Amino acid sequence: MLPEAEAAAEGGEAGELLRRVTRDRDSLGGARRGEHVLSLALATGVCYGVTAALLKIISGQLRTGVTEPLHHWVLYVTCLIGPTGFLLSQNTFQQGRLVSPALAVITTVDPLIGVAIGVSWFGEEMVGGPLVTAGELLSGLLIVAGIGVLARHGARLLHHAGTPAGRVPSSPTEPAPIVLGEPALSEGQLRSRL
Fold first, then answer.
1. Keywords assigned by UniProt (predicted)?
2. pLDDT surpasses 50 at 178
3. What's the rounded Cα separation, in Å, for the pair 2 and 13?
4. What's the rounded Cα separation, in Å, for the pair 164 and 86?
5. What does the alpha-carbon distance between residue 69 and residue 166 come to, in Å, rounded to a whole number?
6. How many separate helices (H) and strands (E) can be counted in the chain?
7. 160 contacts 147 by C-beta, under 8 angstroms
8. Are 110 and 43 in contact (CB under 8 A)?
9. What whole-number distance in Å separates Cα of residue 29 and Cα of residue 31?
10. How distant, in Å, are the alpha carbons of 96, 124, 180 from that of 184?
11. pLDDT tens digits for 6-64?
């Protein structure tokens, strides 16, 4: 535990809360790490969606003049949010070995944020009707279910799969040991595939 947390631990409820947060942060394992990766993926998708909307505004400003975006806040916010989204995505993919659920969250949230901003900021109209709305809701549920299947199935595969050294990881988030000099396929296996 951090020295600041130990010093604040004498402060009653606030100290207990700080102790729990510090303990949870220090022992970020299995399920919490998966939740952390999906949270980072969600934040990445939001940044990408907002960046896309801001770029639409900038492209409209460019029609007025090449220097027009320089006189508005949108360009500068885009210069902050765009790289932040990129850094979040890199952090997301480096946090764990399960890339599929994170990528699915990013690619799902990005257009949803774009549509929400288009409707609320730009006054876009959505075609409606009971059949269209039911189809959109069903599609959304299928996307969420697909992300859940990717997350569970990928974690189970990593947990039960053997590593190059023949050892099974003790948890789904434990990195597999790297064995240098060991080919992924033998020459015979390569020839049989040709």
1. Membrane, Transmembrane, Transmembrane helix
2. no
3. 17
4. 32
5. 57
6. 7, 0
7. no
8. no
9. 6
10. 21, 52, 10
11. 433 444 443 453 355 445 444 444 456 667 888 899 999 999 999 999 999 999 999 99
